[in-house]
Amino acid sequence: MADVVNSATGRRIVVAVDESEESTYALRWFLRNLLRAVPAEGSEAGDTLILVYARPSPRVYPAMDGAVYLFDEEVAATMDKHSKDVMEKAQSICEGHGNVKVEVKVCIGDARDVICQVVEKLGADLLVIGSHGYGFIKRSFLGSVSDHCARNAKCPVLIVKREIRIRIGQIESTLKILFLIQILALEEYFLVEVLFMFLSHLVELPLIGMYTFTVSDVVNTEGAQVPAMFVFGDSLVDPGNNNDLLTVAKANYYPNGVDFAIGTTGRYCNGGTVVDHLGNLLGLPLIPPFNSPTTTGSNILRGVNYGSAASGILWDTGLIYGDVFTMDDQIQNLNITLQQLRLLLGNGTADFLARSLFFVGMGANDYINNYLHPLPRKSRKYTPVAFSQLLIQEYRRQLEDLHDLGARKILVAGVPPLGCTPNQIGGSNDSRGECIRSSNTLAVQFNSQVKLLVHQLNTTLPGSSLLFWDTYSLIHNIIDNYLLYGFKYPNKACCGVGRSKGQVMCLPLLPLECRNRSEYIFWDPYHATDALNAIAAKDAYQGTLHLTFPMNVEQLVRS
After folding, report:
1. What are the annotated GO cellular component locations (predicted)?
2. What pLDDT, in 10s, does the model give residues 178-192?
3. What does pTM read for this prediction?
């Protein structure tokens, strides 16, 4: 693609157009972001856009008497007018973008074949085409023009996807890219990672394994220790909720999920997250993501996972990455689920919620992507103590909101040792690979206040049982004694780029070099491997009071 974009000669760009909004969006996006217009002096170095519209072939229709008929003249005239209207609309869009050379071609036939034939005949340098966003089933039955062209066109293909959901204002893609570049200029490695991930949302990458997480319509929780589990958190528990959000914080590409039974889902892990393993210990099937279209009806009777990568307690945590579900958003999403639950369970809803487990794990991103980040970097405004107090104030309100909605058994996970991630270690000047003390101090301060908050809420919220899970001490102990737990690499990521493989997240175009992934504590620069998640979940489930206060999960669900 770089060769196309950087060519010094005039390019011939074929743009497939039709009457759809997706086609219009693709044309506008290309004009805004990649067009090289013709200079005013008339140089031939600018782009030439060839707008191609594929008109359906005349069809033969059987009549009741056995005869066959073609389109009549009136129908043909209507189709001609429609073709003309489509092309005039596309041309008017181009005219609004300055000095652009435009050619139009209306061809008769199947769009998949027509587009590829025009590309080959004209020797096009690039094909731009919109994506209708069909899921796997629709692609299988209807056929995808973009998929066909990506595999058969004799030139590079740019498949542009529309934003599926934008909740933080209607932000234009170009402005968001420019804003990200301003941020990323502060961190060179971050630039590579975020630009790749952001563009991967807009441009489909053929031949890269992509999976959509689905769950069975049959819910079987017989023998489970709780009727359901509702999960709130960040990328440590996100099962793929960010996949369809306009954000760079998503993991819906290989090698994420390389060891997971259902493949790549959007989890930041080679296998299961800590709540996947905890749910298994409780006898529950996989908890479905809130943002999945199948998370409705009886599927929500096993619970719902609202976790969203890059999110935090504060409303602006994760904003630099685009659209995420903040903790407040996740609580609002629970409200949506409750409306369905009341239809399913009626008067039994309150008892169902009271017996279910609510997992809450927030706070890490409020430090990594907010307090410590160059932008917005609240460390310029707050002292560490003042910032943790701000977080606790908001966290208290959010946990009280969960209680008001019916949560009674709540597991609150503390923040892990932030300074021990490969990202922190790899970004330091210390060649010994030791944890960054200043970052860990922030985590300890926050956790001590969360533990106190849990104790206070247990006395003020009627009928509630909240647990504090000290993930910091657990993971730090595993890192310090990694050989005893069967690990070989305590401070190096299995998948990533840079020092300690901690400066850039996993990228789909790079080979996965670590074969024995169970020997690593960290999967990528920030997140744990399936092996560590399994150990952690078992600790939460049946650990000692040293790490789970005032009891463990097994004792909680039996109470």
Report:
1. extracellular region
2. 334 333 333 443 444
3. 0.66
